[in-house]
Amino acid sequence: MLTDTLNTTKSEDIFAAAQKLMPGGVSSPVRAFKSVGGQPIVFDRVKGSQVWDVDGNQYTDYVGTWGPAICGHAHPEVLSALKEALEKGTSFGAPCALENVLAEMVIEAVPSVEMVRFVNSGTEACMAVLRLMRAFTGREKLIKFEGCYHGHADMFLVKAGSGVATLGLPDSPGVPKAVTSSTLTAPYNDLQAVQELFAANPGEIAGVILEPVVGNSGFIAPDAGFLAGLREITKDEGALLVFDEVMTGFRIAYGGAQEKFGITPDLTTLGKVIGGGLPVGAYGGRRDIMSMVAPAGPMYQAGTLSGNPLAMTAGIKTLELLGRPGSYEQLDKITGKLITGLLQVAKDNGHAVCGGHISGMFGLFFTEGPVHNYEDAKAADAQKFAKYHRGMLEQGIYLAPSAFEAGFTSLAHTEEDIDRTLKAAQVVLSSM
Ligand SMILES: Cc1ncc(COP(=O)(O)O)c(C=O)c1O
C-alpha cells in the first residue's frame, strides 16, 4: 500500500547502537515505536513546527517534545533569553530572582495556586503533591482514574496510562504492594464509582488526583459536571482535589483546565510547558496547604537543580509568549482545523473514527466512540492506528507513536502545515 520511501539508514544505525547501551535504546519508553512497529526516528534538530531526522528527512511535528514546545520548537526569543542566562551560570543552588518571576506568573495565571514549589519533572511534582495531600489530611488513601498517568512514582503505577498503556504492561514489578494498596482507582468520568470508594473508605481518603482533560489514554475530555462533581464530593468528604495539569497547564488555556472549566482544585501539578523545553515541574495550591512544605513546614521535599536559572528563564519566556493576545485563539483555530479535517478525511474513506480538541491538544480514536474513559479507548482499533502512524510518518508527519497519547500543536503551526497534514491523511487513509 504505502511506498517505503523513507530512508532511515542513519536512524537505524544509531538506534541499533543505542539498544546495546540503554534499555530498549531509549531514555523514556514512550519514544520507542513498540506499539506501532518499526523503529524510532532519531532526531537531529527541531525548529518551529518542523523536525529533521539524522537522515535529513523533514516532518511536521504533532508531538512537540510531548507538550512543552507550545510556542514552536527552538523559539528565537526563548533561545536568546537562554543564551543570555547561560553566561551567568547554569545552576546556583541558592535562591535566584528568576524563581520569583516564574512563581508570580504561575500564581497570577492558575486559579488554585497561591504558592508554588518548583521541581524538575512532572513525576516529581506528582510524587510531592501526594506526600503533601497525605501530610495535610493525615489520611493515606488516594483515588486516581484508570488510564490517567501521573508520572512513574510507585503509588501512581496502578492502571496507569501513557507508556504503561501503550506497551500493554501490567502494573510494574518492583512496586511494593504495600505502596499501591492505598491507591484506589475508578473509571474516568464516573462520579458514582468515586462516591462508592469514599463510602467504602470513610475518613481514609486524602484526596482525588486526575488529569482534568486526559491526554495519557489518548485525548478524553471530562463529561459535563464531572469536574464539578468531584469538587463537591471531595469538599463534602474533607478530602483534597488535585488537578494534574502537567499536560494541560498553560496548554488548553493560560490558566489550564481549571480556568477553562471554572473549577478550582485545592492543589495543582504542572510541568512540560512551564519549563519551555527545559526540565521543570511544579506543584502549588492553597497557601494553608503549601505552608506545610519544608522549610515553611514539616513535609520534606527538596531538589539540587530545582528552580535553576536556565529552566526558569525558558519557562518565563515561554509563558510571556503565551500571554500575548490571541495565543489561545490561534491554537484553538489551527487545532480545530486539523482535527475536523482529519475526522472528515477518515470518515470519507470509510473509517470509524471519533476525536476532538481543546485549544492546542487533540486526539483521534479509530472507533465509532464516544470515548469517555480508558476502557472505551482500549476498544479502538490499535492495528489501524499503527498503519496510520507509519503511513503518516512516510508522508512527513510525525505523530506520537501510540494510540494512547494526545497530540499537540503549537503557535508555530501554520494553515499550510495543516493543509499538508490533511493531504497526507488522505493519501494514507484512502489506502488503508
Ligand atoms: C498528566 C501527566 N502527569 C505527569 C507526567 C509526568 O511528567 P514527567 O514526564 O515530566 O515526569 C506526565 C508526563 O507525560 C503527564 O502527562
Automatic annotation (TrEMBL):
The keyword Cytoplasm is assigned to this record: yes
Catalytic activity of the protein: (S)-4-amino-5-oxopentanoate = 5-aminolevulinate
Keyword terms, alphabetized: Chlorophyll biosynthesis, Cytoplasm, Isomerase, Porphyrin biosynthesis, Pyridoxal phosphate
Leader sequence segment: none
Top-rank taxon, per record: Bacteria
GO process terms (BP): chlorophyll biosynthetic process; protoporphyrinogen IX biosynthetic process
Pfam family, one: Aminotran_3
GO molecular function, one term: glutamate-1-semialdehyde 2,1-aminomutase activity
Primary localisation category: cytoplasm
Functional pathway: Porphyrin-containing compound metabolism; protoporphyrin-IX biosynthesis; 5-aminolevulinate from L-glutamyl-tRNA(Glu): step 2/2
Chain positions with N6-(pyridoxal phosphate)lysine modification: K272
PROSITE patterns found in the cross-reference section: AA_TRANSFER_CLASS_3
Keyword Transferase set for record: no
UniProt record similarity statement: Belongs to the class-III pyridoxal-phosphate-dependent aminotransferase family. HemL subfamily.
NCBIfam families, per database record: hemL, PRK00062.1
Protein name, as recorded: Glutamate-1-semialdehyde 2,1-aminomutase
Organism: Acaryochloris thomasi RCC1774
Organism taxonomic ancestry: Bacteria, Bacillati, Cyanobacteriota, Cyanophyceae, Acaryochloridales
Gene name of the encoded protein: hemL_1
